[in-house]
Amino acid sequence: MQLSREALTVAYTQMRTIREFEERVHKEFATGKIPGFVHLYAGEETSAVGVCMHLNGVDYITSTHRGHGHCIGKGCDVDGMMKEIFGRQGGLCKGKGGSMHIADVGKGMLGANGIVGGGPPLACGAALAAKQRKTNGIAVAFFGDGAFNQGTTLEAMNFASVYQLPVFFVLEDNGYAESTSSDWSIGGHNPVLRARGFGIPGDRVDGHDFFAVYRAANEAIGRIRAGEGPQFLHIEFTRYYGHFEGDAMTYRPPGEVAEERNFLDCLAFFRARVTSGGLLDGAQLDGIDRDTVSRIDAAVAAAKAAPPPAAEELTTDVYKNY
Amino acid sequence: MSRKSFRQALNEAMRQEMERDPSVILLGEDIAGGMGAKGKQDAWGDVLGASKGLLPKFGRERIYDTPISESAFIGAAAGAAINGLRPVAQLMFVDFVGVCGDQIINQIAKFRYMFGGKATTPLVIRTLFGAGTRAASQHSQCLYPVFAHIPGLKVVIPSSPYEAKGLMIQSIQDDDPVIFFEHKAMYDDTEEVPDEPYTIPLGKAKIVREGGDVTIVAIGRMVQFANKAAEALQKNGIACTVIDPRTVSPFDFDTVLKSVRQTGRLVVVDEASPRCNIATDIAAQAAQQAFGALRAPIRMVTPPHTPVPFAPELEDLYIPSVAKIEAAATEAVRYAA
After folding, report:
1. Is the pLDDT assigned to residue B337 strictly greater than 90?
2. Which is the CATH superfamily of the domain at B2-193?
3. How many CA atoms lie within 13 A of A97 on its CB side?
């Protein structure tokens, strides 16, 4: 499957944006400027981008506590995201949600989630609504290897199966549920087989390879749109940072992250592939890199300059009417 | 005796009970950390480090790092408890009860009654709660009123490291299911804590300070806030009694009502959402049983009826403050019918 130059440019720009966004949030968090809990997506860019490139305005996604990448993949505004993460006015959720609850329902991004396994049932509901309203929309449930052991996720898979809902279950297996290895925690050690147990076809891909993820997502989403019911994808990669910012990651062997970054980085892989194949040239990619840095710089500056929410905001938005 | 943090006090309580009683086991997500991973084991000792060091001492036979499956491990802890073990399970954040509520509300709480008194469930569910760490709506709630509402559960809320150790040891030794609330903003608080094991009985309030003008009942972290308010009020000539109930189920209404009968004024400070919380429960009891003694309306200091916001400026407004407690106590004392 050949991607157009435009599609390749979009893919690289999106992945680079996620990477730069996360690296920058990592730095800003270390200075104490970002409150609360932050979970970074760096290292997993292929999933959000490789999947979301097949989505459009009528489609929905549910995300996880590690949700910044999904936001960017689904087209959320990075300025609004950054303001949200800093807890400022103009944030996507008015500064009330923060990193762990970042959402933009209007964009079909139904929220990061503080509850492991909180998203998959919601994705079923979004898919059910799309099916009933005949919008041709689908829902993607992004969830981690930890959530794959939650009852909510397993119930959602069964639910989607029995109703043949247009849901794409995307297991982002970054190797660790907090500090616990996914090699240990997923009983049976075969997520694809587990999905098949629910009657949901699925595949496993190397998440370091954007093209593999893109291709697998394209096929799965094509089947969902053709009315073949829910599909499953197991994406394997690693996270470059801790479970949360501040996690010393002593449970990982020394050098594991450096090795991933040096030899398996998805952006480096993408660059090598497109430049060696003559699809895009290095100078173009360098330009995207520079533009992305400027864009994230501007987002951080705007977030820092934005005022905190007004005191009255404390008691608004609890109900529509009360 | 030495200065210990809230975290160290809990650690010592669990360690001493595990040494004393081989039936005590721990279960929870990352309570040791690094399960199945190739790096260090005991990497976390739970998310805030309260059980760190217990894995090397007691091993995987007694420390169960679990998959992220709250319904399964909370339910398994209960199943083990009615069959001879004394599990201490950690529900990492109390907000996660949304995932495993059935096991706690419909199973654990009901065993003894439904089975005609033939089941005993010596189980502790440790859980983090409370606002103040910018953890936003799904990691900051004070859900203890939900548990206090359920007959069959005991609900313990320590207000300091000393309280945490004594109440934890008692909770582990107790034969009923206990939900043990640990305020995450108190983990680094320190005070003198005895090295040897000791217990604090469940259902017996502590009179933290005595004064004749107004009774302030405060829960968990709010006890510290109430004490600060009482110190400031003392300078303005208002003498406060501060009561720490220690457990909200059972609740020591006798101690509270006795004090209210003496002062004639009651302020209740509760970090939980204002509707149907412990403050309303205490106020209802005082209104029913000490109406004649009341010289002013009962005041409640609580957050507004909203989820916990993320932005620090909003969260600081959300949490009951020392200033709000001072204002409520002053209003009660100055009230003229």
Report:
1. no
2. Thiamin diphosphate (ThDP)-binding fold, Pyr/PP domains (3.40.50.970)
3. 26
